[in-house]
Amino acid sequence: MLPVQRTCGVLHLEDVALTALAECYGTPLYAYSASAIAARYRAFTAAFEGHPHRLCYAVKANSNLAVLELLAKLGAGFDIVSGGELERVLRAGGDPGSVVFSGVGKTVAEMERALEVGVACFNVESAAELDRLEAVAARLGRRAPVSLRVNPDVDAATHPYISTGLKENKFGIPVAAAPDLYRRAAATPSLEVRGIDCHIGSQLTRLDPFVAALDRILALVETLESDGIALEHIDLGGGLGVRYEEEDPPSIAAYATAILGRLGNRRETLLFEPGRWLVAEAGVFLTRVEYVKENEGRHFLVVDGAMNDLLRPALYGSWHSIEAVGDPTQAGKTETVDVVGPVCESSDFLGKGRQLAACAGDLLAVHTAGAYGFGMASNYNSRNRPAEVMVQGNRHMLVRRRETLDDQLALERLVAGSLDAPPDGA
Ligand code: LLP
User: Catalytic: 359?
Assistant: First the structure.
């Protein structure tokens, strides 16, 4: 059951009226259901019960400390792509020994810190990265646990910006190049081969690309075995899609059946790196209508939330369902409207051509906003980023206060005479 439901005419997140959240914390606002995140985590692990597995939540999907803390308490591991994400996991009480470190551009400093705290595995994406990791680990007198991220050259059939498993993408190591690199890693004292990894894209709504990728990975696992290189784990990345509009993504049970069916008798631990699937549907973005505007017969709701708060529609043309929070029986005339923000770009919209009845001052809920919402927010147009709230049952708590202008300006300074004269030609 989705955590957002209409009760007595008003949209609620769990048992809290969204109107109450907006009054308490202001808008624009992100609100997350703790129970929905926990339910998804439990459903995922239950689907793989009977096979050794670990969920490493992809922190990038929603890196709020309270979300990480909740998942850490449930027993999740974490998939990180930066030193910043690693520190977030540690501050939230996550176990570094459950962390896999992904990403194509790991710096020396990030490798050092990850080795120091003892991450479970580096998902290495290139020969150059393997060289660097070998050198850093040797210098620190450590053995770096590694897995190679292989690019299986599979079409994930998703938006091109979030498709990662094709050979033209920057991600991973070609299947053909992997055995040599594995041999090299296995023969290097400062490296310890642990597993194999792939991630072919995000918001996948079909099973066949996952299965095709797994088949290629399994063929590689067999080649490596015949070379005497045994792996402890197979990391299948994230990517399972959710329903934003009319999509019909596979159920977690169907996903598990497809994967376990392919594995046969293999007993390597399965790692997964789900992000969106765990948190997207748990989140709602609340925004208030500032103005109702009509231009040449086109209707606009100008709201206080914008592309800097929720970038997905502007960046990917993503569709998020938008509903008026208040009682529909009390609402005025339904119009076809564009829901737009105050930012000075025509790409600043949250939804176009929507059927809504709303007046200035009304509250709107933008659904399925728990993943890649706040995490992609910016200060564009010098807007303060929204607050974030966690809801459980009838309780709610601020988990990130709204930014202030002082927060934004704290890192900047005026030149104030410290440079002599304006540059030539100024
Ligand atoms: N593992 C790796 C290595 C990844 O690159 C990603 C996502 C994940 C796991 C998690 O994928 P998920 O389960 O969330 O699909 N900003 C985009 C999505 C970018 C995904 C990037 N990588 C969006 O808003 O749709």
Answer: no
Q: In angstroms, rounded to a whole number, what is the distance separating the alpha carbons of residues 61 and 171?
A: 18
Q: What SS3 class is residue 310? A: coil
Partner residues linked to 390 by β-bridges? 32, 397
Does the pTM exceed 0.90? yes
Q: How far is the CA of 19 from the centre of ligand 1 (A)?
A: 31
Residue 424: the pLDDT is 67
The whole-chain average pLDDT of the chain stands at: 95
Structural fold of domain 4-31+280-409? Lyase, Ornithine Decarboxylase; Chain A, domain 1 (2.40.37)
Phi, psi of 179, deg, nearest 5? -55, -40
Q: Cα of 264 to ligand 1 centre, how many Å? A: 28
Q: Where are the domains of the chain?
A: 4-31+280-409, 34-276
For residue 328, the model assigns a pLDDT of 85
- Joined tokens for residue 91: 């501050």
Mutate to test the pocket of ligand 1, among 56, 63, 202, 279 (most ligand atoms within 8 A of CB): 202
Reported CATH class of domain 34-276: alpha beta
Angstrom distance (rounded) from CA 59 to CA 396: 22
Question: Tens digits of per-residue pLDDT, 322-345?
Answer: 999 999 888 889 999 999 999 999
Res 162: pLDDT: 67
